[in-house]
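Lecture notes, unit on protein representations.

Consider one protein chain, 422 amino acids long.
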Amino acid sequence: MARDVLVLGGGGREHVLAWALTRSPSVAKVVTAPGNPGTAELGPTHAIDPTDPDAVAELAARLGVDLVVVGPEAPLVAGVVDALAARDIPAFGPVADAARIEGSKAFAKAIMEAAGAPTGGAVATGDRDAAYAALERFGPPYVVKADGLAAGKGVRICTELDEARDAVDDALVRGLFGAAGSQLVIEEFLDGPERSVFGVCDGTEVVLLEPAQDYKRALDGDAGLNTGGMGAYTPVPGFTLSEVDHLEDLVFRPVLQELADRGTPYRGLLYAGLVETTAGPKLLEFNARFGDPETQAILPRIGGDLGELLWQAATGSVAGAELSWQQRAAVTVVLASGGYPGSYPTGVPIHGVEAAAALPDVEVFHAGTRREDDRLVTAGGRVLAVTALGATVAAAREQAYEATDLIGFDGVHRRSDIAAGV
């Protein structure tokens, strides 16, 4: 029997999730809350606060959906899945205690170490002097992280000790990140390319998705400030699904077992942020949800039934389950507002989306958009994610940039080097 699915969230990740689920044979209907102009083309949207557990559970019950897929991290940390479970509504996403693996970097480090998963050294503290001592212990480059969720702005990598001490003071003395920065994690710097590996988890078992490479810095050549992500591509040469299957036993299963042993089984998407060091892959962080914009590159390559896999993870077991994959590459290029990740205007008219989406093998996913008087306008820092498929990464890249050339709005910014030279 085909199922009705509610996708919770309103960004680019939720648009591609809804898009992929509408293509799943096991899914009858997809609704989103609050959704965006892109998801509205796929099914009904409902204007609620996704971080309000009671409101989400009430909506899911009223709609009679069979499954809720939670997109962003904030609703997970707020306990949305707990509220759904109280009403016996299946959800793909961890309960709040398990979502601490993203909500608290100190908790994540403790889980990594207890599970014996490879990671760098770290000190978690809310004491300024202890933080200063940890900086000197690890040496440069210095890594200073706010423990809690800080909208992607809570990580500072500093080359000078004085700069790192100032980052400590921003959090602990000046309270720049509020409660999220009342405790810090000072980490050993891990040198090497970053990789994103997603695992669909049922509490004990995992099905890995095809890895992707994303681009965090705002400017070409990995210059500028950190962002939520300016683009991504998949497959990654030397880091394809068949080449990372050892991570199931090295990283995912030990961490799932540790969480289960603590009484918080993890059902949902576990995102391992890894660094390929000279000593092998090491864990940099965990996220409790699909990454953005990696998901916009990964999901269009799926050839199987994503909805069925998420249902199995939420309600039963994924043991023996697997997805089929198209033997094509995908490249995603993000179009951002001028000034992002700093301050930026909103309400800027957007043109060319329909023309770009009409190109062969191109999808345009909405991230920060809204409708005003029947016009599409900007409503966020990352506005659109343009994904193209191709026989090779180079071919997909050419098509993605051809599509982005058709889209415009005042101040539009993109990186020009996504997947260059791959």
